């Protein structure tokens, strides 16, 4: 069976994106749907690339080592050796890819064999599921559940993993788990206790961890990002994926990476060399420069990563404030670029009868785009068929947008 035949077409998330783009063309809405900034990148970012593009060094414009340009591999290895407190070898343990999507593709295709079970935490970035199916693997779902908590006499909802359920899903057939933290779409950042629990299960059942940490630079204080590969006994069984373009807010630049034990990385390296050969050389050099500079500024107020955290935290808080005042209940994200909001209270006051979709969120999102020119994203797109019903009253907002865009959206939301 061909790879594409293995991909169950009606669960292919790209189908929805196409429809979404068509709606956007037709209604020209304020866009808080897809996850990318609607503003220009910082000057030092575009200057770094311009500098490479006008370089008179011939090699800066030609093929480079398929594993990644040495300067970028060195910069990334230095950065992650620091974060993990483990020496990451740029020669054996670091691979540069064409975006983290390619790293993900190579990880799943390279490590999963037909019949292998792979655990995913739902709702999830559905490309995980498509790839598992393409590899002939079997996705096993465990869902995040909303728990109401009280703190400082205020009620707030938090995403929790049911430990009994996750314990039961690990078996001798389990080959891997995909751990996405910060998590898309919920914005959950897994804490040490949760990661240790999962790490212990990986060790007990000899399971590989594919750690998707593409939103690692978007973790809002006081929360901190914990890399599962840094936990005892985990580096050797974890492939960690990251994204330079997400880290610097230039999603179109598509340079990602994977790091991990050489035995695991070897599978990705071979695939990568056959699919892409090498990711764009000038982009790699530009990112190398940025990571070198960031390394020297880590933790300082002048660091771009620090500035981004502050800026995005302010945007998040603004939109959470707006949503809290209307009949939508936002679930405060600890990381990432999205806020989920519960629309249950609003439903009795809106007429969705013109929309023929199966799930409430799909109807609501279309209604909002067509009737009020505000585009958001449905959460059932991130769920397997059997689980969609549990999440259909949630919609997703992207807050990595200009303040003026957020204000335009706020105006629409206040007048719903
Ligand atoms: C969780 C997650 N992983 C991976 C990706 C792929 O990112 P990219 O290919 O832009 O690096 C995305 C994109 O939105 C994502 O949300």
UniProtKB/TrEMBL annotation:
Residues 30-412 form the Aminotransferase class I/classII large domain. The keyword Transferase applies. Its cofactor is pyridoxal 5'-phosphate. Pathway: Amino-acid degradation; L-kynurenine degradation; kynurenate from L-kynurenine: step 1/2. SUPFAM superfamilies: PLP-dependent transferases (SSF53383). GO terms for cellular component: mitochondrion. The keyword Transferase applies. One of its GO terms (biological process) is kynurenine metabolic process. One of its GO terms (molecular function) is kynurenine-oxoglutarate transaminase activity. Signal peptide: none annotated. It holds the Pfam family Aminotran_1_2. InterPro entries: Aminotransferase_I/II_large, Kynurenine-oxoglutarate_AT, PyrdxlP-dep_Trfase, PyrdxlP-dep_Trfase_major, PyrdxlP-dep_Trfase_small. Belongs to the class-I pyridoxal-phosphate-dependent aminotransferase family. Homodimer. This is Aminotransferase class I/classII large domain-containing protein. It comes from Psylliodes chrysocephalus.
């Amino acid at each position: 069976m061909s790879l594409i035949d293995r991909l169950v077409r009606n669960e292919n998330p790209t189908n929805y994106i196409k429809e979404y783009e068509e709606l956007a063309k037709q209604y020209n809405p304020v866009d808080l749907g897809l996850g990318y900034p609607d503003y220009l990148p910082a000057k030092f970012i575009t200057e770094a690339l311009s500098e490479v593009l006008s370089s008179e060094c011939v090699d800066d414009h030609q093929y480079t080592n398929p594993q990644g340009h040495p300067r970028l591999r060195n910069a990334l290895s230095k950065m992650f050796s620091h974060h993990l407190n483990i020496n990451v070898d740029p020669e054996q343990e670091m691979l540069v890819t064409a975006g983290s999507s390619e790293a993900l593709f190579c990880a799943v295709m390279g490590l999963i064999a037909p019949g292998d079970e792979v655990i995913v935490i739902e709702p999830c970035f559905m490309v995980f599921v498509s790839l598992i199916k393409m590899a002939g693997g079997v996705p096993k779902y465990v869902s995040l559940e909303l728990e109401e908590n009280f703190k400082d006499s205020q009620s707030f909802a938090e995403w929790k993993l049911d430990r009994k359920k996750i314990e039961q899903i690990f078996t001798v057939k389990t080959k891997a788990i995909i751990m996405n933290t910060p998590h898309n779409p919920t914005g959950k950042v897994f804490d040490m206790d949760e990661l240790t629990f999962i790490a212990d299960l990986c060790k007990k059942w000899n399971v590989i961890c594919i750690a998707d940490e593409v939103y690692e630079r978007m973790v809002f204080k006081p929360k901190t990002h914990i890399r599962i590969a840094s936990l005892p006994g985990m580096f050797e069984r974890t492939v960690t994926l990251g994204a330079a373009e997400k880290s610097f807010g230039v999603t179109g630049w598509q340079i990602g990476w994977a790091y991990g034990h050489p035995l695991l990385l070897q599978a990705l390296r071979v695939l990568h060399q056959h699919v892409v050969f090498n990711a764009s050389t000038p982009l790699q050099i530009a990112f190398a420069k940025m990571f070198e500079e960031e390394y020297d500024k880590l933790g300082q107020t002048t660091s771009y990563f620090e500035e981004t955290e502050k800026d995005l935290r302010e945007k998040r808080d603004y939109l959470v404030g707006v949503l809290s005042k209307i009949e939508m209940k936002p679930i405060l994200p600890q990381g990432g670029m999205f806020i989920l909001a519960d629309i249950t209270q609003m439903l009795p006051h809106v007429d969705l009868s013109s929309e023929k979709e199966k799930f409430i969120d799909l109807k609501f999102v279309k209604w909002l785009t067509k009737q009020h020119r505000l585009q958001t994203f449905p959460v059932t797109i991130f769920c397997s068929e059997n689980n969609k019903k549990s999440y259909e009253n949630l919609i997703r907002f992207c807050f990595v947008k200009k303040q003026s865009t957020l204000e335009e959206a706020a105006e629409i939301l206040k007048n719903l």
